[in-house]
Here is the input.
Amino acid sequence: MKYIERQHVGVFLGAVLIGLGLSYVHLTTPERVFAYLNFEQLGIIALGSTVLCALLFCFKVVPGVTKRPFLWGDFEYKDITPGLNILFGGVLFGIGWALAGMSPTTAFVAIGNGLPQALFSIIGIFLGSIIGTALFRR
Amino acid sequence: MEIEQYVIGGLLLGGGVGFVYLSVGLIVDVVGSYAAALSLFLKGDLNRSKRFTELRFTYMYFIFGLVVSGVLYTLFVNGTMPYSDVSGVRMLIGGVLVGLGATITGGGLLSHCTWSISELGRTTSFVSFAFVSIVLSVSYLTRLILMP
Here is the structure.
């Protein structure tokens, strides 16, 4: 098995862009996240709108033209079914986010930024992932 | 922060998710990334789906990219490392709840937004909207009650 394949390069570069975006709007700093959650920083609306526009363009406009990804594979689709897991999971996620100011994605970026406490957040998310998988997703 | 900073950040964030999709056809799944990392240390698959077992190393490269982006930002854009007053214990407890919540629902905020955009179906959009609304409302109330 090759350790670096084309899909790895695409995913890596995409992750770098995602992380740079999160760092640029300080979503990797808990205090700034708290300000967003308290609705003290209304620029989050501009951020959310821009993200949605970019996602619409990349997920709906471009695939209609290109038909296939330019590096590897086919376009995947994901279906979510509504259920109580959305309610329970959302409540837990919301409480945890309000406590830590970290989400699964921002925690790794924060480690790269040099925020040492983010390591505790990552450990906690791993523990939560283990518990959640053992209890709910097998 | 100026409005331009939010727009640039949004373009990088949305563009990054879009780049993954346009280059390899995958929808960003950070929960899968955590499971992938865990599978290196724990015996047996935590997630036995075909998607996970085939894409384990792809998920690892996603994590690697997130960490590298943080390093690049601190080295070349910000210049200084961030600081936070939030204690490690609080981060640990919050992290457990976030990880549990994300695993139960199958993803975090970014994943849910991406799924709804990729499908633009009524059910998917409703579920994602419900999840985001619940998270933001509960976060706001939690901070109101616990940390006035």
Helices of chain A lie at 6-24, 30-37, 43-66, 84-100, 104-113, 118-137.
